[in-house]
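== Sequence entry ==
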Amino acid sequence: MTDGVKLGALLWNQYTPWADLRAGGIRADELGYDSLWTWDHLYPIVGSDDGPIIEGWLTLAAWAERTERARIGLMVGANTFRNPALVAKMATTLDHISGGRTVLGIGGAWFETEHRAYGIAFGESPGERLRWLEEAVKIMRGMLHGEEPSGSRYYDADSVRNDPMPVQERLPILIGGGGEKKTLRIVARYADACNVGGGFDTVKRKDEILRRHCEEVGRDESEIERTAGMGMCVIRDDQAEAERVAASIFEHNGNADPWKNQLVGTPEQVADRIRPYLGIGFRHLIIGFPAPYDAESMERLVREVKPELERG
């Protein structure tokens, strides 16, 4: 028997009216999803980027007011978009709005198009953005712990105070990304949780590398919650019908080409695809739901697939 399987719902905030995104988050909470996420992007990232997208932080604030149990966060925040001290303050405020359910999701950022369009500094390389991220996480972690951190090389925070403190005794920082030399080492040093994706073999390899980084920096790897991005999900009793629905969803999202190797099929097929992750210690699976949010799949994942996973 496998205990403690957690499911997160990642609702894509592109190509959707606000009313549907709002309702989708409320429904996920009612169904019993353990966590609720959306993207931190300013242009769509799947299909054509010439389309609508709803801003992430304000989405979280609205969800926090209308949900009751799911933890709430960005999957993941773009560190380049905002001053890290301000982000820590925003996450703290969201923690109060949500009654202590906030996760501060953060990553180095990657989508150059939106940075150029909005006039946001993108840096010269992924390495530079990760150097920014590491200092940013130090500032965020300090503020959330009640310290008064200052910047050193990249940020001008000066003994910055966070008052009031979060509702949670330890508001978790989740770092998204699987960079093997730098990102996963930042996770080992500072994060409470991480998120990686790219399929089972990739996730397994990244986790092994994270464990080595933890050993090198003297961190107990069991302190870091592992979450895996599982792509998107469509569940039907017939695989062909599930694939048809998935294709229509991708078409809705900027005429995107359907992704391969997704959680698309019968409940049994979806459970079989998820099960290997449980065997390597990943108990928190983040499932993508693009607009238009498929109510049948959202419900059947919780009602049918999750019990099957918990039976082992």
DSSP finds ten helices and ten strands in the chain. The domain at 6-310 is CATH 3.20.20.30 (TIM Barrel).
